[in-house]
Amino acid sequence: MAKEYQIRIEGHLGSQWADWFDGFSITLEADGKTLLSGPVPDQPALYGLLRKVRDLGLPLVSVNQVHSIKGENIMAVNTYRTTAKVVGALYILGFVVGIAGSVLGTPGQLDTVSARSMMIAIGALLWVIAAAGDTAHGVMMFPILKQNNERIALGYFGARVVEAAVIAISALFILLQIPLGVEFLKSSTSEIPYLQFLSVLFIQSQAYSYQIGMVALGMAGLTLCYGFYRAKLVPQLFVVWGFIGYVSFLLGSMLEVLGFNLQLLHTLPGGLWEMSIGVWLIAKGFNSSAFVSESTKDKAN
Question: In 3-state terms, the chain is what percent helix, strand and coil (to 5)?
Fold first, then answer.
């Protein structure tokens, strides 16, 4: 009975080589490698196939036997294709919702808060929705990253949960401005300085908690990009860009906590990366050849 094999070689081959490899499908990968996939009837046929690879003069990277190609692996690839679309959509929606929350959730002067309480509350709730989306990122990516390294998967999930919790606390400080604004309009002259002090305290607490959340985001993003690099789930351009963007997030947010005002410039590389990777995942998905069933891994080892 023929068995399905995946052979990965260094360099790109044209589709005209399919006949040379007995009708094997040829997939050009983003990292400069070529994936050959197809059935092999027996061991002599496999050895003959490997001799053809040798005759090309291209380095052989790996040879994997794939079980139940029409069953569990196709189901896994389809599942991860759906996951990629969901994760990509979460990136884009999180970016948009975060900007909307920042615009609507800015309290302003305490004497105007009561009149704008509905908009402020909506802005804070948008931040909570964005935080929930961050947790969903960790949940959705966990089984994918776990295939390559469980520690990376746990690290990313944990960092995303911490980030979401801190951002939710930041949203709470925004909401606390609303009752202060109501009391401000009813307060006597002697109470105004106290209410203004509380307002400034909550605003500063919100700013600090937000930047701490961004530090957690930077750590989560670096963990994710390392997982992408190890598993080759996305093109290396996104890996390098992601590392740069999340280092900027991490260091810039630390500087903000220390009192430097960067005007959110440190968030631009990472923010643009999240939008770009979101579009890529929706359109292209993860590199399907990166998914190998556990039984296949055991066979290969």
Answer: 70, 10, 20
Residue 293 CA: distances (Å) to CA of 8, 81, 103, 157: 16, 15, 45, 22
CA distance linking residue 3 with residue 171, whole number of Å: 55
Residue recorded with tokens 């794939």 = 66
Reading the chain (301 residues) residue by residue, the pLDDT tens digits are: 567 888 888 888 876 777 777 767 888 887 888 888 888 888 888 888 888 888 888 888 888 887 544 444 444 555 678 889 999 999 999 989 988 988 888 888 888 998 999 999 999 999 999 999 999 999 999 998 988 889 999 999 999 999 999 999 999 999 999 999 999 998 888 899 999 999 999 999 999 999 999 999 999 999 999 999 988 899 999 999 999 999 999 999 999 999 999 988 999 999 999 999 999 999 988 886 665 544 444 444 4
Dihedral sign, CA of 52, 53, 55, 56?
Answer: positive
Judge whether 231 and 290 are in contact, CB under 8 Å.
Answer: yes
Provide the token pair at 203. Answer: 């605003």
Q: Which residues pair with 4 in a beta bridge?
A: 39, 66
Alpha carbons within 13 angstroms on the beta-carbon side of residue 184 total: 21
